[in-house]
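INTERNAL AUDIT FORM
Audit reference: QA-55
Scope: verify that the stored structure record matches its stored sequence.
Auditor: D.O.
Record contents follow.
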Amino acid sequence: MSAPVVLVPGLGLGPESYTRTVEHLITPYHLVTLPGYGEPAGAREDLHPRALAVALGEKIRERSVLVGHSASCQIVVEAAVRYPELAHAVVLVAPSGDARMSSVDRAVRWLGSAVPDSPKLLRVVTPQYARTTLPTIARAGEASRQHDLAAVISQVKAPVLIVRGRHDLLSTAEWVDRLATLSHGEARTLDTGAHMPIVTNGPEVATLIERAATLPESR
């Protein structure tokens, strides 16, 4: 029997970002938005991944496959560590969180990854960013940059699958291989796509999520 799926949008994005993925899911799923990740944040809200992991844990109804995209991967991993009973498996799509990367390098790589997909994605992401609001996105982005995903992921007890697009300059092959090694998980590079495989490679991502949902109980 498959575990249900919980999906968290990436930084600034909303549930719509997963449309091309969830239309190929058979397993029941639940989309969860959080401040900075589909919702605007109050002025005093803590947007650090550890704090948002607590908010995510309160919204998970049962043991599930936890799916994150880009910066929300850091939230999903923190939730899996804090609430191991809720994580059947963890799927990280184009994870950010490499603390070794400078802010300038990160911005350049993000832009370089966005260019190949920008013509088809601009109309998709613009209203989502507008809803989350640019000030909230800036605050959440800064909080995510203070989080070292590599320092936490080894504590995850559930199976971990990490997915990236071949042309993703932000979530590099070296980075996802490092995360896979630290988590005793699996890294997959898709033949196409960049930093938005949940949109550009929906069927492939859905297939990998479905496989994670049918994995045996965690070690």
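Auditor finding: record pair retrieved intact. The chain has a mean pLDDT of 91.
Action required: none
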